[in-house]
Task: inverse folding
């Protein structure tokens, strides 16, 4: 038992012993007084002097009312002492509950400063203050995420205008200029298509934000060949790799079977590989590796790029956090890809980490070979 609770137990035990001792002494005193002659003489004398003016009558009345009912009187005294002691005992308990309730009220009211309780409740005081600090941190984190999301929405809304204006402008030129050359027509169409694709990306980011806020991830487990999944993914990324003259090297153990949600895990690997392509230096090499590590599979994505500062690396999995805050960058996404990846991996009872140094960026995903059970 914690030290604070030992103090509470000791204090309550001491109070109980004192109350019981007082009850025994008080009850014994009543019994002795009733049976002893001094009390009897005093009562008989009072009755003789003020009521009956006859000693024998007073003595008879005393015997009938007091001495003959001594057991009943003692029993009533015991009950009275018991209820008084119990009341005092419960009041001491109520005091502690009142203190705890006041501490909980302070949590609800978000009062500044720490909660202070009696020394006997030091362990409870520590836990309440820990909860209070955790709630404050969560509130600040939620407010920061909300601010980042709002800023992102404002930027996205502003950015939607640029490609939309270009698309409308070039399509208008094509519509109005009937004698335009085929070369210029193809140029305008190419630009309109490029801007339309960018417009689609921005709209998809809006949908991504909405889905993240309104949906709960539910896993559907099955046996998945992680090696084949990575092979397919790296093949699909070849067009993006060629745009930046990048190479992607896959080193994976043959037929790594892991129990996981195939669609969700493909989304994780897709986000990590897309992140590696976006932030890789041109003419570089992205290395994707997968191997067994103890009781699970470890998948690593490594790419060349500017070293990420430690303060940014600590926040890289936060919602709506973007390494490149410049909205003009085509690589800039909604800041949800890594946050969603982290949530999916942790639902699989796995881990995802990031590290950066010497011009390299590395993301590692560990997945248990067989999870304890589906996380819903």
Result:
């Amino acid at each position: 038992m914690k030290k604070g609770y030992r103090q509470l137990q000791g204090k309550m035990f001491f109070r109980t012993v004192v109350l019981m001792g007082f009850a025994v002494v008080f009850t014994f005193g009543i019994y002795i007084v009733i049976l002893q002659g001094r009390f009897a003489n005093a009562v008989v004398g009072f009755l003789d002097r003020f009521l009956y003016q006859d000693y024998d009558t007073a003595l008879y009345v005393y015997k009938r009312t007091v001495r003959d009912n001594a057991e009943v009187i003692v029993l009533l005294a015991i009950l009275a002492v018991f209820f008084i002691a119990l009341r005092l005992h419960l009041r001491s308990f109520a005091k502690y509950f009142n203190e705890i309730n006041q501490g909980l009220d302070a949590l609800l009211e978000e009062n500044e400063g720490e909660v202070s309780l009696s020394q006997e409740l030091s362990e409870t005081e520590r836990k309440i203050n820990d909860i209070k600090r955790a709630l404050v941190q969560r509130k600040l984190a939620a407010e920061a995420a909300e601010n980042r999301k709002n800023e992102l929405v404002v930027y996205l809304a502003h950015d939607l205008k640029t490609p939309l204006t270009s698309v409308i402008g070039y399509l208008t030129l094509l519509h109005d200029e009937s004698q335009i050359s085929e070369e210029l027509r193809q140029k305008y169409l190419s630009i309109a298509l490029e801007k339309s694709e960018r417009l689609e990306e921005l709209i998809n980011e809006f949908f991504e934000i909405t889905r993240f806020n309104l949906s709960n991830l539910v896993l559907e487990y099955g046996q998945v060949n992680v090696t084949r999944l990575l092979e397919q993914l790296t093949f699909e990324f070849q067009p993006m790799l060629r745009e930046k003259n990048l190479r992607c090297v896959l080193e994976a153990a043959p037929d790594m079977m892991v129990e996981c949600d195939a669609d969700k895990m493909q989304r994780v690997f897709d986000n990590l590989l897309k992140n590696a392509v976006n932030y890789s230096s041109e003419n570089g090499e992205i290395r994707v590796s997968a191997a067994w590590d103890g009781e699970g599979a470890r998948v690593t994505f490594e790419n060349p790029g500017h070293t990420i500062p430690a303060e940014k690396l600590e926040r890289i999995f936060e919602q709506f956090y973007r390494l490149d805050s410049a909205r003009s960058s085509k690589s800039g996404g909604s800041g949800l890809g890594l946050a969603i990846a982290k949530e999916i991996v942790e639902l699989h009872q796995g881990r995802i980490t990031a590290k950066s140094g010497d011009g390299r960026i590395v993301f590692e995903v560990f997945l248990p070979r067989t999870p304890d059970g589906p996380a819903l």
